[in-house]
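protien #1 (seq + structre)
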Amino acid sequence: MAMVPDLIIDGVGKTTFPGNLEAATRRGQIVIYGAASGPADPISPNALMPRSLTISGGSLQKLMLDRKEMLYRANAVIKGIQEGWLKLRIGKVLPLAQAAAAHRLLEGRQTTGKVILSTSA
């Protein structure tokens, strides 16, 4: 039996959003937080009614009210990593001298996880 997602978190946008609409379960939620492939095409709110889908969006810059909240959230991320329930995935470590190559990998969408530039790699 295929798994049908109750929650889809989408940072890609244009190329993935139509599939999100098809994949979401009845009463499913889709959260858009980015547009790596461009903004998602607009849809009619009435198109959400047959399966009672909910779509929302946000931007990290707009969620942080002030420095105090930013530090609170940053500490929560660090705590999650320390406690082990939040995993940091490093896909590639390159020497700083290869920054241009790292950019090409990112722009070509040839990476998974974080790309780290290091002075000691």
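ok now protien #2
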Amino acid sequence: MQQRLKDTVNVLVPTGALGVGVKESDVAAGIAAGAHAIACDAGSTDSGPAYLATGKAKYSRAAIKTDLAVLMRAQAKARIPLLIGSCGTSGCDAALDWTRDIALEIARENGLNPRIALLYSEQQPGQLTARAAAGRVWPLAPMTSTEPAFGDCDRIVALMGPEPYMAALEAGADIVLGGRTTDTAVLAAVPLHRGAGAGPAWHAGKIAECGGLCTTHPRDSGVMIRVGRDAFEIEPLSATNQCTPRSVSAHMLYENSDPFVLLEPGGELDVTAARYEAVNERVVRVTGSSFRSKPYTMKLEGAAGGGFQTLMLVGIQDRAVLAEIDRFVAKMHEVLVQRVRATVGDAAGAFDISLRPYGWNAVSGALADSAATPPREIGLLFVATAATQDLATQIAKTCNPWFFHLPLNEETELPSYAFPFSPAEIERGQVFEFKLNHVVHVSHPAELVRTVLIEAPEFANA
């Protein structure tokens, strides 16, 4: 057993994302173990562009409120700061305001009176256009445009670093609700603010970003990070869970193209020399992390709505079809496109038909190995994309008879595939896409951030 680190800054990370679930027992354990702050992430680009373009959250209001209420009550009782990044999934202004309203409702219902800092990071197209013209915006792969069409985006956010959170704490905030923020920054903010080493603070933030994902039982609990000048320790909040050198070190591979270097606003974390050692059966100590300062940049994410989609689904167990799935799907696609062009004509506009054989290769899209054994059945998903919802549905209706009855070979009897829904057409709604994957150079970490401080009673009757 190694001696534990002393003079650390301790951050309780109760969950990987607000709304996934917070255990009150975990939070209580972290408070009792000496937490100096509570911090967690609440958003991501993982679930696609719709949440940014619409400003709506991925998780339900009830789920967010349940988790946030636990954390706000703990914050008030322990009198330690609570930091939440990327509120409302996308971290745009509407999503942040939505989270703010939930927090104020919780405060009113529980008799709480926190001072709340709101960090807004949504950007206006005109300001970014001027920065791009000055050579301060450049693309990240796979984007190539150095003059992005900011005006085509419904919403744009810039990913904050830890500095706006630190400034909010300096201003006396009890709770900091942040717009779009890097996952690591919201966890590194308090350690950095209180003088911990930059390398350990950023590395601890990266490892703990998904809560218990760095433990041997990822769904069992959150974690506590204890950050010192030259090292950090990480341990699960549940007494029955464990952190091991393997479970901790493996998280540097999570959503990171380089297992040793992580780019962040204002620099890069380098863990090439890091060592992961077990303190005991539950706790891991990490040394050797470093952080190199670089010109300050913020990643830009922009999204917008596009066309509309209508879906249809059939289940296929026909052995002949399943023996030649690729030929069947290619034939089906050709027949359906020709039918729309012949029947709807120019009125269809620029449309797209996608066929996705689930149970074969729909996840990867890559052709299966020629030696692959035919599956017992597949679900064939039809996706029509067009300029309007009505057009997408009319295209689906036009394709309906062939989608449900197309034979593999013309000389065979007409088949009927299994459709699970009636009506068969399912209107999915608008399609959204990312328009930006760029970085913008800033002269100050708060240059693109707007901070608003409020007292809960100000909105008590809102």
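The chain has a mean pLDDT of 95.
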